Amino acid sequence: MSKLSLTQAINAGLRRALEDDPKVVLLGEDIGTLGGVFRVTDGLMKDFGSHRVIDTPLAESAIIGTAVGLAYRGFRPVCEIQFDGFIYPGFDQIVSQVAKMHVRTHGKVRMPLTIRVPFGGGIGSPEHHSESPEAYFVHTSGLRVISPSNPQDAYTMLRQAISSDDPVLYFEPKRRYHTKGEVDLEMPLASAPHMGAARVVAAGTDVTLVTYGPLVRTALDAASAAAAEGISIEVIDLRSLSPVDYPPIMESVRRTGRLVISHEAGQTLGLGAEIAATITERCFNYLESAPVRVTGFDIPYPPSKLEKHHLPDLDRMLDGVDRALGRTNSHTGLDD
Question: Cβ distance 279 to 253 under 8 Å?
């Protein structure tokens, strides 16, 4: 076991993929000589060469378009989108080509393409650097969308994504890049939890709290704080946003009778809305109260000095738990 930060775990996952398969190539802005703006790819160009770790122009459309051609020719490209809000110039290729090429060719063409996207806020960045665009891609058939919350998952889920024949968007919680944890670098992929599986990270009996990526740590803190008041929260890390692994959520809600979903993205048509609707349909007779969403506000991402008011934090999560338990009449006003 090695103690690694999330950044180091992703770097180790990329390194292992490059070692294991000569068809793996990395593409992105400043990922080579600089090692990436977050130093995630540090040292990889030196060890594997500029023909496999490719510094690209500042053009996301060209990055994705080039990767589509590489995947078509049998390579396994891994693209880095430098910041979440920069992904939109490549949006057309992702939803019109990457997501559809396999089905349009009746399986003759595969798209083993992984797109790494640092996402979310909490690091004090300027405009277009702290967004949560995952709902755009969750809505698009033909894409896998995953997000790790800890170094071990960051390592194994990335390796699984790169080895998969499916196109995968891999959302990295950038404010957790320095979070450290134990990582088994020799864990066989076959024995690791599948990247499509949700995981219960804290057992509980009173409320089910579902989240992913950067907010898993916040949810665990909320569970600890609530335990001091005698409230038992079960925390589920989704890990896969598309497809969602519903059975663990359903099993939990059938025991707790209450559901809270939290994410940084805005509330309207966010992933939380779909989960709330699906669980209501499948577990209606078990619910003691309506599902509660604790999310970012329906506004463009605010200036960095105001982001602490925008992002769900410990207090807002605990307020959502209280509302699910009927312990308060407070309301965030998000859906007024």
Answer: yes
